[in-house]
Amino acid sequence: MKLSVIIPYYNGEQWIACCLNSLLRQDLAPEEYEIIVVDDGSTHSIDTLMSYVERHPNIHYLHQTNQKHAAARNYGMTIAKGDYLFFCDCDDYVADNVFGRLCDIAIGEQADVLLFNVCRSEENETGLVAKRDFDNKASFENGLAYISQPPYGFRIESPILVRRSMLEEEHLCFDPLMFNCEDYLFSLQLMQVAGKVVKVDVDVYYYVQHPSSWVHSAGIANNRNEVINCRLTYIKYLHKTRLELAAGKRVSEGCLDAMSHAEARDTVIYLCNHLQYSSIKENKEYIGELRSLGFYPIAHRIVAYDWIRRLINIYPLWMVLCCFYHLLPLPVRDGIVKAIRKE
Predict the structure, then answer these.
(1) Angle at the Cα of 144 (from 269 to 202), degrees rounded to 5?
(2) What is the distance between the alpha carbons of residues 127 and 99, in angstroms, rounded to a whole number?
(3) SS3 137
(4) Which helix or strand (DSSP H or E) is residue 166 part of?
(5) Fewest CB atoms within 10 Å of the CB: 89, 238, 246, 318?
């Protein structure tokens, strides 16, 4: 079997049909790939999901009880049979007829990791123009060599093709204690051990921003700060890894600079998320913790929206913004939120 698609699922009744339909419109025969849906204890109807399971032999249903996305992905990995794994969220979708070509490229190149374009869109957005240049690809000796290439975006999200046997050999999985940013932590760990990496200029994955995404969800409301703080866990790990790689002189300056950029960018996002959802007292505490860790002021310039980083570094002004954020005109608040998403 060429491919296993793993989908964590929780109360996704209104989106799962779109997701599964896109996964079924592929240039692979049903026996060449499987779709594994891991239900994390949904409290809403799963009738739509089960109708697909009943009609399509290559769609498999698993159940666990409220262990979050990371554990759901790990559960799916334990039964996956595909040579390559692909992780997909139940409220997103993929382009038609791409999996066959992607698998052929990954197998032909003997790649540990195959990367492609991840597109972001608002709910119900239409008219998107897709890139499908399968011949436009770049190869890298290993994961750290890929990180070193500008632009230093560095963050690699979970919609990738990754060789299953490599994950098993390295005993690599998602951290089940991470409620957020588990993709980023996994990707950082993955790129430290991955051999050949191939990137193709093809729009494959469509990440859809829904009004009911986790930051708006009632189910997350009581532990939003805990969820947001998962990003700080990732930043700490990223910082520690960068120092270790620098001390061992194992990587290029470009790789270290890419990781410094990622630290700065995610620190900005971390503080902007707290700006929206935390009290002034809590925001002071978060700045204090970052200062004690050496992460504040944020020294490294970021590629986009560096004005937010400069604003955050002016401590009195940032505290004033924390006090009056919810009194700002809606367009200003929306601008900050959109800047965070694009980063």
Answers:
(1) 75
(2) 22
(3) strand
(4) helix 164-170
(5) 246
Mean of the pLDDT values across residues 154-173? 87
Tokens representing residue 171 in the block = 């005993």
* 297-311 pLDDT, tens digit each: 999 998 777 888 999
Residue that has been written with the tokens 């697909």 in this structure: 52
Has residue 236 got a pLDDT over 80? Answer: yes
DSSP for 30-52, please give it.
Answer: GGGEEEEEEE---SS--HHHHHH
CA angle 71, 338, 88 (to 5 degrees): 30
The model carries a pTM of 0.89
**Amino acid identity of 118?**
V
pLDDT digits (tens, 9 = 90+) for 66-125: 898 999 999 999 999 999 999 999 999 999 999 999 999 999 999 999 999 998 876 554
> Which residue bears the tokens 């969820």?
227
Cα distances (Å, whole numbers) of residue 83 to 55, 164, 182, 198: 24, 6, 23, 16
**What is the CA 35 to chain-centroid distance, rounded?**
19
